[in-house]
Amino acid sequence: MSSSRRWKSTALRLWRVALLVAVVFAIRRSHQPVAVELTVERIRDFFPTAADLTPQNGMQVVKDESGITLGHVMQTSPEADDIIGYSGPTNTLIALDSRGKVLGLRILHSNDTTDHVAEVVGERAFFKQFTNKKAAEMANMHVDAVSGATLTSSAIAEGVLRRLGKSATTSLRFPDAITLDEVKKLEPRAAKLRESKTHPGSQEILDAKDQVIALAVRTAPSSDGVVGYKGPSDTFMLMNATGSTLRGIALRRSYDNEVYVGYVTGDAAFLKTFDGMTVEQIANIDFANAGVEGVSGATQTSFGVAEGVRVRAQSLLKEKEAKRSWWSLIRWRWQDSGHVVILLAAFVMAFTPLRGRAWCRHLHHALLVIYGGFMAGEMLSQGLLAGWAAHGTPWRNVHGLVLLAAVALLGPVFTSKQLYCHHICPHGALQQLLAKRLPFQWSPPHGVEVVLSKLPFVLLAFVLLSVAFALPVDLNALEPFDAYLFRVAGWASIVIAIVGLLWSLVTPLAYCRYGCPTGALFKLLRFTGDADRFGARDWLGAMCVVFVLLFAHG
């Protein structure tokens, strides 16, 4: 191949990859998280006497007509918008009673597959797993996913646990955050506070040069259950910049006896009890052996404060142990192992002489149908790919499926082979098993065939526009793939699957040739060889992307 032809070949491949990236960008640009406005009516089934909602620290306080606090409500969005189920994130309402226990959950909005979401909504036992539990009790909670909607329900659970994990750093008894004025009393150099990304619930203390000089930590809500003489207290803990050593404490608020609280705040020696100690030393301190003495006249109140500091130190250690590197967040499922096997088998069938042996092809097709279709039930579709384009890929949870998608999209560009359509897709495999099983075969007339062959591309363009302009279209109802998960499948998918399979008995690969928009996407990307040129499909693809970029706005 001449250098000129090689350059043109490379440029055409890069153009089609760039076009794919541009499609993703255009879809992502046109999508914004959906904010749901909570009203009293929306939460009345959790709080029948609710009369008012008041924002407070990222949550909303629910009060009755007398102003009595009934509980709190919060949404998982935007904190959990990056948690993708099967094809998108879900925004869930969390209702807490006045003690901080979960009253119940409700899905407010979901960008996930409609059928999967419906399956989760119908499984009441899934939501009951969270009720009557406080956020702290769910730190290491194992949630049973919904069969048939595993990815969707697991993502909902993860979003709820993440949101509750953040609420676990917010005290319902002591809702006010540490202020700069409070910090300056212990650290005069403090000029600014900002939320710490590495220490949840803490604030970084910055000097005039924007350098982190210390951490501001409060004992609430960890110490909300520690009662001194009459009630709990919230203490400000000034830590060093790394959060490893305590530099000083100051009592912030208390429900204890006012006189006793005055004794504690006036005892400088007691307030210096923990100065210079590491978090580990405080967490494991034995007050008696360490010679820690309470404040005269306020013994129970002072020991309540000291115990609150110890409890908070213990929670800081647990948070430190819970921190994990990004690779430890990856969850390997049995389906992911299966996807790797399927990919290896696809490469073998595509690039070795085994593809020419009928028994080997039939065995491979049977494996795809049984495992890929009925066991794993995870197939590439427009609903899946469009959801990922709009909201991101769930690489931490379904990396096997993400890898399969990457091979399916890039394989046609760099290998000139339709790896997914010919060697991975369960529905395509089932059509190949059914091909020419009947003596009667039918091919549409040339004119009809030309029109029918354009239908997948028309559907693909419709998918792009419907996603970009947020049209109320169930993309999964355009394809038959959900039919393999018949428990959650809609009637449209089942009908398309049955009609397509029956047609394939007399017209080989009828659905693949005349109805599959996902296959059309791979055909658009495919590099067909040295004779391939920049053609109509490239122009039309570019025109669709430009149209979306110009007219679709989030």
Describe the structure.
Helix 14 crosses helix 20. With about 550 residues, the chain is an alpha+beta fold. It has helices at about 5-30, 40-45, 115-120, 125-130, 150-165, 180-185, 260-265, 270, 280-285, 300-320, 335-350, 360-375, 380-390, 400-415, 420-425, 425-435, 445-470, 490-505, 510-515, 515-525, 535-550; strands spanning about 50-55, 60-65, 70-75, 90-95, 100-110, 190-195, 205, 210-220, 235-240, 245-255. It has 21 helices and 10 strands.
The major sheet is characterized as: 5 strands, antiparallel
What is the count of DSSP helices, taking H or I runs of 4+ residues?
21
Range of strand content:
5-15%
Topology, number of strands: 10
Mean pLDDT across the residues is 88
Shape: elongated
Gyration radius, to the nearest Å?
A: 30 Å
Please bin the fraction of helical residues: 40-55%
Overview in brief:
It is built from 21 helices and ten strands.
Name some characteristics of this structure.
554 residues, alpha+beta, five-stranded antiparallel sheet, 21 helices, 10 strands, 46% helix, 12% strand
List the helices and strands and how they pair.
Layout: H1 3-30, H2 40-43, E1 52-56, E2 59-63, E3 69-75, E4 90-97, E5 102-110, H3 114-121, H4 124-128, H5 150-167, H6 180-186, E6 192-195, E7 203-206, E8 212-218, E9 233-239, E10 246-254, H7 258-265, H8 268-271, H9 279-283, H10 299-322, H11 334-351, H12 358-376, H13 382-391, H14 399-414, H15 419-423, H16 426-434, H17 446-468, H18 491-504, H19 510-514, H20 517-525, H21 536-551
Antiparallel strand pairs: 1-2, 2-3, 3-4, 4-5, 6-7, 7-8, 8-9, 9-10
